[in-house]
Amino acid sequence: MFSDCRNLITAPQLPAKRLTENCYANMFYGCSSLTSAPELPATTLSYGCYESMFYGCTSLTTAPELSATTLANYCYYDMFHNCTSLVTAPELPATTLTIWCYGQMFYGCTNLVTAPELPATTMKASCYTGMFQNCTSLISAPELPATTLADSCYNSMFDHCTSLVNAPELPATTLAGGCYRWMFQDCTNLTTAPELPATTLTNYCYNQMFQRCTKLNYIKAMFTTTPSGSSPNYYTQNWVSGVSSTGTFVKNSAATWNVTGVNGIPNGWTVQTATT
Question: Could you tell me the pTM of the whole model?
């Protein structure tokens, strides 16, 4: 409706409380002069309803309140993509997620310092994929309490968050395909990895997870499955490529594998063992 209206400063009111598929998708796409967003009071969402709504609104400093607790597939996908002036994210109270619901929601929000709380415990495929990718000012990550994962649920979530110093706990003991793939890739200020309590790996689960985390020097990983960077499972392909040249790797005492290098224990690291 207002896509690429680059001189638009003020948005109209949007009072609808029940939305339909793709109803606001791309509505203000590329409105680079828009400084504030309208209130969005809807509590019933639908497929793609806010998809790319403010994509490229580079003057937008404040996001609207998003109070919906029942989400829909792709509902917030790319909503604030490349909103480079956005400093604070809205609260996201939903506890049950849907497919790609938060996918790339804040991708490229380079001034975003604080992430919202993410209380969800029920996941769906790709629900957080790329959510904060390229948020280069983000310092800390929110808690991620889910213990049951879904395929690609955290894929690229903090990829290239170069200011991130604190990673969230990852309590899940049962993994899903590609669940943590690229999650912290290029987080160049991350020194300590979150503990990885799962004992069994699945396809692509840790693929490139810490690639080029140049300061990373501590990992505790309890898996007993032999790590692998090749077909058919690619469990840990390049997962520690480019990390610090020295560090400590805590390994499950029950693990019999002996893989070193970019697909296993980084070369030059000290190995310790743990029973839990």
Answer: 0.96
